[in-house]
Every structure is written in C-alpha cells, then in structure tokens.
C-alpha cells in the first residue's frame, strides 16, 4: 500500500519539480535576452582593450576590467589568483613571399606562437609541400635538408563538427617544426587551420620537442592554395619569410574570480568560466571574450533574479589558455591543495554561437544525471547533451573529481575567425551570445539543485 | 510460425535499411560539403544580379540565370512556368527627418512594399507613437487625425524562435496604414522588424484594406528609439518623409522549374524550392537566394552521386513570394488542374543558417512518418523535426493533399538582415548554406524511398 502510494506520488512530485524548474529556466532566458549585459561588456573588452596575449598590457587591462565589472555587480567575493605565465611577443610585422616567374607573390603570414625568429634579414629557401608526417618521413633528410617545409593538409570539410576537422589537421601546426627539423629543414610554413579560402593567417601554439628550433609560421588558405598550384608547375620555387618574435622571461599575471556564496552548502563549488587571454592578432571576440562575458552574465542573471544558490557559484576567467594553460593548471593545483570541493566546472571556449548542448566528462552516473535535463533544455535548442569534451582550462580540475562540462555552441563558423585578425566583436551576434549565457545559467541552476 | 519469423526478420530488415540509408545520407553530406556549388552560384545571383523584386530587370535576369545553371547540370527537364506578378517600384531614394530643438534629425527610412507615394514635396505632420491597434483605437480620431502614426512595438526578444517574435509584431507593418487611416492619419511609420538596434530600415509588404491609402514606411530601430525618446520630452514633434514609389501594371514573369524524372513512379512528385524574387533594397542573400541555390544543389548532389530517384524530384524557384505569392498560387493551381500528384513539398525560406530541423504541415500519420527519420538526421544537427510551419510558396499545394515541409535553420540571425540592404552574400556562411542543402537532399532521399 505504501509502496503503491509512493509510486503514485513520485511522478507527481517529479512533475511538480520539473514544472518549477521549467518556470525558473524561462525566467533566466527572459532576463538574459531582455536585459543581458554580456554584449556591451564584450564590446569594451574587444574594442577598448583588444588583444590580450599572456604577459601583454592588454592582458593586464583585461584582468583589471573584468574584476571591476564583477565588483560593480556586487558579487559576494571578487579576487585575483596569481598565475605565472609565458611571455611571447610577435615583434614587428612579418613579411613573406614566394618567387614565381621572377615576380614576388606576397603571402599573408603570421608566426606561430612560441616560434623562434628567423635571422634578421629573413629566411630564403626552396619550399617543399607535404601533407603529413608520414610523407615527411618518406622524403627524409635527402629531400628535406636545407628546405622550408610547407604543411598543406586542409581541415576535412566533411566533418560535421568542425572541431573534429581541426583535431585532424592541427598536428601540422603544433608539431610540424620539430618533425621537419629532424630532417634538416630550415623553416616551416603551415596552411592556416581554417575551412574557408581567404586571406587571413591563423596563428596558434606550436612546441619544440627535439630537433632544432626552426622558425614556423601560418600562411592564409588562399596563399596555401596558390603556393601549392605553383609548386606543381615550379617545383623548385623559393620561399622567403621574416619574423622577429621572441620568448621573454615568464611574467606575473592572474586568474580573475568572482563568486556568490552558497546558502546551504557553501563549501561545494560550481565553476563557470572561459579564458581571458587571447592571441595577439585579434580582439579575441569568439576566442574567448564571449566565454568570459557569458560566464559573468551567468552570475549577473542569477543575482538579478534574486536567486540564492545552495552551493557556491564561481566565475573563473582563466589566464593563458592559448600558450601554456598556466591559469587552468594553477587553479586546479590550488583547489587540490586547499581541498576545495568542486562538484562541476563548465567552460565556454568554443565561440559565442547559437547553443547546441553540453559535452560532459565524467562517469556514467554523472553523464546520465545531466542527460536527464534534456526535456528541460531542449526547448532552448540544447539537444546535444552527452559524453563529450569539456574545456582546456577546466580539464585539470578532473583530478579533484570534478565533473567537467563543455558548453557546445554550433561549430560551423568558429574556424573562420579562430586565432586570426578577423576574430572581432562585429562577428558576434548579440542573441547567440546571450542564449549561450542563459544556457549556462540554466545548467548551473539545475546542477545547484541536484540531490 | 510464419508470423514469428516475420517478427524476427522485420527488425533485421529495418536495421539493414536504416544502415543503407545512413550510408547514403553520409555520401550526400560529403558531396555537398566537399564539392558543393551552391555558394558560388549564390555569389553570382547576389553580386552579378542583385535585387530582384517581381517585375524588375533583376528578377528577369535571375530567371534566365537559374534556368541556365540547371541546364548546365543536365537535369532531365528545365522549364519556365508563366506567372503574372504585381509590379511595384520604389522610385528615387526616400528622405525622412524629424525636428528636435530646431534641428533636423535624419532618419533611415524605406517605403513599405505596396505603399503609395507621399506628395511630391513630401509629408510633414505631428507624429504620435502607439504600440498596437488597441492603443490606436483608444486614442481615436480626435488624437490621430492629421497626424503621422508611429508604430513602435518591438519584436519580443524573449522568444527563442525569432519567427515568433516577428509574428507578434508584423501586424504593424502589414496593417498599420489601413488601421491608422480609419482615424484620419495622414501617414504611417513603423519600427523595423529587427531585433538589433542598428541603422537599417527593413521594408516588407503592407496592404490597404479599407480606410484611405496613406503612405507607409519603415524606419530603423535606432531611429525608432531616438524618436520615441524625443517624443517623451517633445510630444508635438514634427516628422517629415518623402517617397515616390508606385504600383505599375502587372508584369509577366516565371517560376523556374527543373526536375529529375522518377524511374519507378514518375507521376509522383517531390518538390524542393525557394523563392527567386527578393526585395529591392538588397541582394536577397538569405531571403531567399540561399533557398533557391540550396534547392538546385539538392538535385545537383543527387545526380552527382548517380542516384536514380523512384519519384520525380522537382526544383521550383517561385516568383513573387514577397509581394503577392503569385508564383506559389499559380504553381498550385496548375498542379491541381493537371491533376499532378505532389506527395511532398519542401521549402527553404528561413535563411541559409545552420540547420535545426524541419517543420511539417500534415496529418498525424504524415508527421509521424517524418519524425521517424530523427535517428538518421540528428547526427547532422537536425533535432527539431515535427509539426510546424511549412513555407509560403508551397502552402497553396496543401489543397492537393501535399505534405508541406519547411526547412528550419537556426533563426537567431535572420531578422538582422531580413528585407534590408545588409542582406548580402557576405553574411552567408558557406558551410551553413551547404549543410542546409545536404539536409534537404537527405530528406528528399528518405521521402523518395518511403513506402
């Protein structure tokens, strides 16, 4: 009898709770879409501060600005966390061309982050095209020595999720220089990680791992196509590039943190964040100004609605995702050392595009608990909730048992702008940005009320 | 025994069929994403032809161009269908301003399609702001007579689907002039149907239905905001606008049709289409160049893959969706008269944005048959498949028993460009456009193989 009663009551209680949740989630979206401030905040970050590579003046200003914004919203605590970051600078504008029929064909180029400079007068050598490391190895020292290696394998356009296409091509950028140096190459140029054909070179991090330290740079997809065509008819084409980037001493910097303290379980923390640093070429709008401003907006929205979280909700703007991940690793180290109890960490670092869902890193139970939110979130276009990838900055928190959650916007346009000078405020749609913020706020609300 | 065997075999057969479908759908996406031509075709339509309002030279060129493109693809039949269309012209550039503290404040303005001209010297009158027809009625003739009525109810930003927000505001544009004329207004200006605050006036159709025929125009959202603020402090503000649009005699035009003839049931037709006309202010990229070029791409893709459809697959580029729907109504009338058997009609007329799903108009069985495709289509981001709205041009086909299906891309950015001069080729993302085309091709393939 009791069991039967329980079985009758349970669905009613659940439906009631779901209705309450559904009503509150609607309030979240209404607040963010009608009164959201993320877009205006992003404008300041992009237009008044602009590029903010770790160690730069821009990065410092971004720390000060976002701290000030969070203080103005009256969060319970706003503070900085010390982080020591690498400090790489591009130096003066790079130059590149190749010679075709006696004429210079100029090439849009950008040194890869972490690369060494060329000699002061630049580097001129025969260029040889390869598609992958296997082909490089097969050509070997005999064919490679003394040459500039041109990695030209495009991102695969048939991948529906463009991050998969990125994953299938980015080894050329990250490891191409070290691989080529093993066979005596004197420099490396890499086709930009971009699915479009255009004139923007896309920078990004590279690393030296054995072999010599030879200069490495990205060239635009249009230039890569033209160079490749030229090499078919002129296999001994000479390529020239000059760059004077350098790695300076590590610099002091900060993660920027704000929080609303939990009313019932203040020691349990839910993190929502993005990374504050950007590459030096652009305003870092989609990468990752949007993630930072969405994260602040999550807390602003919950506070504006008078919501008193049970757990502590913490915004973290991580420093140095692009070329070191020192913000993410430092944050996790401190959390571990202080024995902080991080339940969930959500990151937005895939652009400020229209929401698609969340990717979860956790055990089956944890993943199932989140996929159970689907009926509440799908009316907002969040259909893709399940096992997936989280976020670079929050990844290190996994060692503390935290469930890692990546906000997943639509991926189609991301690599049009990624790490290039056209990653500007103008490419961000206000509603798409706000829907992302509201989606994260809705998830934070649901997680705060779980168990 | 037989029945049991059937029950054992049936799921196996279904799984096998699903696997075959899944493999072919992947081929469709691969072809369109790697070798698609919709983007290049759209560039020609937008950049070499441009605006193509019914009756204009642009519309005529667009008919010739798209016929030529389909002929070049070697479809089984390519032909024109006669359509008589309204012919409205904007005339020379409109002008508008209001007077504040003795100064002219210029206002970006665009006559609404179908509106009459102002007098040659323009119209100057006191302006009065209203939010809706109820408020207009309450003010009545005493407050309205001799004035310009300013309809300023914004699209509701809290609607997740922006077409809902459009539906909730567009009565002001369509019927505002007639409503205001009843109370003696001398002109009407309407806040643009746009969720952003910017400087683009968005035109669109209006109709006179009783009352006098007074001139009507859209003003930009920024101007609407400024005018509204001004009216709070200066309630007797004078507004001036001048427009010399006119309605000419109806003109001859065409629907453009191409088809691959069915190999098993050629008399059964599946239509896929968009509308070829656009408003005169812009290139008509998202409205609806993308829908036309996606529809052609559906047939190009199926043909490139060597697919022999069982039914006849027909592309229709409808003329005159924007200000008359003569293409859609004529097409349906002819189909009915000829007793053509149209099974399904799919239209893309919500922009070339990342795909979300399909909206279906049909009975429960028909809707259920399509929602059953979800497992095959959701890997491509098509989650929202169910009862919904179809498309203006294919709507009239419902009378012949056709299932009406609207392709549903993400709606967030559509009204940034809709009917305004910024609806240009540059705002279209190649991959999003192609994913839409592939989504429609996949659905056509599944429908062709249904039953």
UniProtKB/TrEMBL annotation, chains A, B:
Extent of the signal sequence: 1-17
Domain PA as annotated: residue spans: 138-227
Keywords: Carboxypeptidase, Endoplasmic reticulum, Glycoprotein, Golgi apparatus, Hydrolase, Lysosome, Metal-binding, Metalloprotease, Protease, Secreted, Signal, Zinc, Zymogen
GO biological process, one term: proteolysis
Main localization of the protein described in the UniProt heading: endoplasmic reticulum
A GO term for molecular function: metallodipeptidase activity
Any single Gene Ontology cellular-component annotation: extracellular region
Record keyword Lipid metabolism present: no
Residue ranges occupied by any Peptidase M28 domain in the UniProt entry: 255-440
Domain of life: Bacteria
KW Signal (keyword) present: yes
Location in the cell: Endoplasmic reticulum; Golgi apparatus; Lysosome; Secreted
Stored PANTHER family: CARBOXYPEPTIDASE Q, PROTEASE FAMILY M28 PLASMA GLUTAMATE CARBOXYPEPTIDASE-RELATED
Self-association state and partner proteins as the record states: Homodimer. The monomeric form is inactive while the homodimer is active.
Name this polypeptide is given: Carboxypeptidase Q
Species name: Lacihabitans soyangensis
Taxonomic lineage of the native organism: Bacteria, Pseudomonadati, Bacteroidota, Cytophagia, Cytophagales
